[in-house]
Amino acid sequence: MYRHFEEVEGELKNQILFMGSLAEEMIHLAVQGLVERKKEPLCHVAQNEERVNRLHIDVDNRCLNLIALYQPAATDLRFIIAAIKINSDLERIGDQAVNISQTTELLLSQPQLERKLLDIPRMAELAQNMLRDSLDAFVKKDVALARTVLARDAEEDQLKSEAFNELMQLMQSDASTIQRALGLILIARNLERVADHATNIAEDVIFMALGQDIRHHAEDAAG
Amino acid sequence: MYRHFEEVEGELKNQILFMGSLAEEMIHLAVQGLVERKKEPLCHVAQNEERVNRLHIDVDNRCLNLIALYQPAATDLRFIIAAIKINSDLERIGDQAVNISQTTELLLSQPQLERKLLDIPRMAELAQNMLRDSLDAFVKKDVALARTVLARDAEEDQLKSEAFNELMQLMQSDASTIQRALGLILIARNLERVADHATNIAEDVIFMALGQDIRHHAEDAAG
């Protein structure tokens, strides 16, 4: 039964949005476990991962079928190719959340570091907002919104560098903190990777909407 | 002028292979700089990155044009979709090499750690072999070879964990080593990510060849 492309496009958008909300929740839960020193949110990370992994396969198959069935050209084809790429990024964001959750589990088995979690909660919030806006830009084909995501990536990098330096100083001043500080460094790096994936998504949105590849120019402009 | 799909497929394979050889060389050069304590190889990393980034855009455009022009189905379509995904992985392998190169530059500005580089050269060699074989499997549509790549990923993870633990102990026993040991930890993690990308490529090859999605089953099997 033939349906209009707009209809199947709408379904694909919804599936990507749902997958994105699961991935975002995984980041939220992993960092919640860290901040509140609770194991319970970490269990939900593992549950969400299974769902994200199943969606990852579903979305790829759906996109392949759409290309084979509709033989789309120009904008419609670029939309599906963008969906395939975004699908990979979302799955990898889920992997980052799993890494954060695993490191958090190790950290919870040890006494809390006196030094606060620095800007890690802020890094998580920024990365989640970037992810949400990049997907919002995807479904609305909103290039201006996608560009705001690109602009925020430098802030995330800056926060990661600051956390990195403070934690290294802490390790140098007190060897008993090394293992825990290293855990936080790795978590900061995971969050930076989440922001990188959101940036990739925003770049794919711009490519999809304009048929222009801004990826490596954007990187150059950001230094 | 219409050409047979096999012909354009061959060109796309060659372009991906060339891009892969550049990415592999970037890893080799970055680790060579680290092992031999020389800055010169690091300059070539930056040069290769520009070429990889240009190829990244070219390959994506070529794939989009191929789909629009040939409207391929089944195996041919899966081949092009695999090429699009492999293209992203190669570009990100290049990014990992750039990260290794930047960390190496910092390490070269400080006295060499007494402790050797542990298994970092071996990790680099393993990751490079995995990358080479995954691309070889892609062009030959060789599922058995792709499966050997998946099997090797656990070894890379093991080497990373060992390096990680030894370096943490070193930091704990001598605070003056913290910054340098942390640099090596980050490099070990970059190499692990290169092996992950090679694993992604091998999974895409199996999907392309068999029309079967083994991705998350493979992850489950590997623990």
Q: In terms of topology, how is this protein built?
A:
The structure is a homodimer of 223-residue chains.
Chain A: H1 5-36, H2 40-70, H3 74-108, H4 120-140, H5 143-173, H6 178-210, H7 215-221
Helix pairs in contact in A: 1-2, 1-3, 1-4, 2-3, 3-6, 4-5, 4-6, 5-6
Give structural notes.
Two copies of one chain form a homodimer. The longest helix of chain A is centred in the middle third of the chain and has 35 residues, at 74-108. In chain A, α1 packs antiparallel against α4 (120-140). The model of chain A is unreliable at 218-223 (pLDDT under 50). With 223 residues, chain A is an all-alpha fold. Chain A starts with a helix and ends with a helix. Helix content of chain A is 85%, strand content 0%. The first copy, chain A, has seven helices and no strands. Chain A has a single domain, classed as Up-down Bundle (Methane Monooxygenase Hydroxylase, Chain G, domain 1). At the A-B interface, α2, α3, α5, α6 and α7 of A face α2, α3, α5, α6 and α7 of B.
